[in-house]
Amino acid sequence: MPSEAPDRRSAAAVVRGAGRACxxxxxxxLAISLGxxxxxxxxxxxxxxxxxxxDELDYLSQVNxxxxxxxxxxxxxxxxxxDGADPFTTxxxxxxxxxxRRWMPSGFDAPANExxxxxxxxxAGCQICNIKGGVTMHLLGPTPRYCTKELVFMQVIPLRTENxxxxxxxxxxxxxxxxxxxxxxxxxxxSQAAAAAAAGPAGEQSATPMNESDVEExxxxxxx
Amino acid sequence: MTAPSSSLAARxxxxxxxxxxxxxxxxxxxxxxxxxxxxxxxxxxxxxxxEKPADTTASTDELAAQSAINAVVLEISGKVRARDxxxxxxxxxxxxxxxxxxxxxxxxxxxxxxLRLGRNATILLDAGTTVVIPELRQDDQVLxxxxxxxxxxxxxxxxxxGLQNDFRVVTPSAxxxxxxxxxxxxxxxxxxxxxxxARLNEIAAIEARWIARRLAYFFGHGTSSSLFxxxxxxxxxxxxxxxxMPGVVDGREQxxxxxxxxxxxxxxxxxxxxxxxxxxxxxxxDDELATVAVLAQLLEIRAxxxxxxxxxQGAAMxxxxxxxxxxxxSSQATAMLPSIEQLxxxxxxxxxxxxxxxxxxxxxxxxxxxxxxAARDDALFHLAETILAIAEKDHEKAKNEADLAAAAAxxxxxxxxxxxxxxxxxxxxxxxxxxxxxxAQSAINxYFAKVGQIDLCxxxxxxxxxxxxxxxxxxxxxxxxxxxxxxxxxxxxxxxILADIGANTxxxxxxxASAAASRDEALAAASNARTMGERxxxxxxxxxxxxAxxxxxxxxxxASSALEAALEARDAALLAHELxxxxxxxxxxxxx
Lengths: 224, 592
Known about the structure:
The complex is a heterodimer. Chain A is mostly helical. Helix content of chain A is 56%, strand content 0%. In chain A, helix 3 (56-64) packs across helix 9 (168-183) and helix 4 (71-83) runs parallel beside helix 9. Mean pLDDT of chain A is 78; it is low at 1-6 and 196-224. Among the domains of chain B are: 4-208, no CATH class; 380-586. Chain B contains twelve helices and 13 strands. Chain B has helices spanning 4-35, 53-67, 200-213, 215-219, 231-244, 252-261, 271-278, 286-379, 385-412, 414-460, 465-527, 532-586; strands at residues 71-77, 80-83, 91-92, 98-99, 103-107, 112-117, 121-125, 130-139, 142-158, 164-170, 175-178, 182-188, 192-196. In chain B, strands 1, 2, 3, 4, 5, 6, 7, 8, 9, 10, 11, 12 and 13 form a 13-stranded mixed β-sheet that branches. Chain B starts with a helix and ends in a 6-residue tail after the last helix. Chains A and B meet through helix 3, helix 4, helix 9, helix 10 and helix 11 of A and helix 1, strand 9, strand 12, helix 3 and helix 7 of B.
């Protein structure tokens, strides 16, 4: 079967040739993959320009136009959302404050102008809105992965993974949706009940069938 | 939402609301496709750039000029700002601020705002919401409202106010027409546009709170004939008043009429309904009720002072009428001023002429006076100055009488007048002489009396010899004076007077003779007259001649009397001279 040997040789040569031809492509693919793992780094954050709480609206407007929300901006926005003010002046102070509140993992050391991950922002959102989550969250506590899954389940955010980032407009929408979650929870600051208590003491009429504000103002809750 | 059952019910309600809203959108879309242009219907997943407010701002400006309606800020919480256009500066927003079409409103975190859009809609902006109002106007019977929700959540409550509603919500991915009472729209980058049930109760509560804060304005008369000059306020009142005051008034006109009649002052709001509506405590109306009480007091004061105000108005009108009349009179007087000035100038010229004439007369009188003084000085000497003045006075009197006689004589002929003049002169000079003689006699008598006293004194006391000597010297001086007087009378006055009187007497006699001759000639001519007319003329001539002859005779008699008086005066003067001279010579002791 002498005729088969050249075929084998040619096949091997083809394989070798293909291997030689594919090695640059593989290298390029590997390089692209490694580069894709690098997070986006922005030149500056909006909080650098508007650090004061009085500049909140300007800060939100600038964040809304950014391609990605940075760690520094996300921390500033979440602090404003949670407390109405940002008591910190530097990024490091904000990170330490967020760690003390368990808004992010203790090993968090990302740069200030790096794009923030959905994971730690979801973790902070669950902590701020007092979202307990499911069994895993109850067992393991708030983690970026499961907090993200919980918020996706609650339709606060669309289907994302904890390593993805948000654009500035998505981050502001994220804060708005967290606000609606918190407003629907009695006892939480900013909730409907708290607003009624601030306007005046709630009377017996709050239980009348006409008062449907608690129903209308709340996003559909997935939990029974 | 704590109990599972209520949570389940809430979820079903929310699903029901979502289905209802979807149905509304579907119906509105179908209706829009039937009657509206395609752009007004629901536009699925259109690019956000197509719905940018800036695209509609230009046409909004044109429409706003026709019948612009403003938006009013009902409530603010947290940080909310607005700008009038996309390229305008942001400004903080406050309650009761007014926004026009094209405005953009942005709310911050933990904030919300409520706006009343025109007459029929209220929009509640949730936290982190940006809304643009590109169109807000009334097109005839249609209230056109366009609201663009760029991000966040906005709840719309659309009321039926008797006009057709054309309320549409524009989102980055859809245009929604509100056909029902309202809906909520959530727009964001994470999920897109969502339609939820509107928080109508919270919006109603916000409206009630706002109108409760403005009760003082509603119950004050203000400057408008309507309780609700702002259409937005009127619409809010229309939508919540039935819950505030059930059974009291049903329509806005009825409410205004009730307020005008004063029957609304004692109305207390139905706080139960209000509390049920707002889920609030009634104590927030304490200030408003106190304001109503204060307003009632103000109304009483106004009623009490109304009469005074009417009187004041009447007085003001009367004063205005007087002022108008005064203006008319002033204008008339102003018109008369030129004629008055001309008259004054004429009178002034006349007065100046009169003054000039008076000056001339005074000058002449001064001349006459100086002449008279000169004549008097010439006629009298020293002690006879007073006597001469009296003589001149009498002379004037005699002159007048002589003038009368001369006038009568002039009617006959020139001869008679010459006789009359002569008679006058003679009489005058005679009187002067008589008076001078009398005065001289009186002076002499006085002199004698003094001399007698001096003689007695000299006889009784030899020591008065020196005095007697002095008296003698004075007597000598008087003697000299008397001598001079006598000489003057004799030389100048008496001689001339007597000569004149004599000449005049002769002339008067001649005139009398001439007059008699004329009378005789006239009588003869009358007797020889050939016609009756001539005879009458000659008879008249004879009569005149007879009168002239009589006057001449009277003048002659007067001249004779004057001559006699002059002679007597001369004799008296000579006697006085002699006495004076003789006394001075013989006594030698007169004078003091």
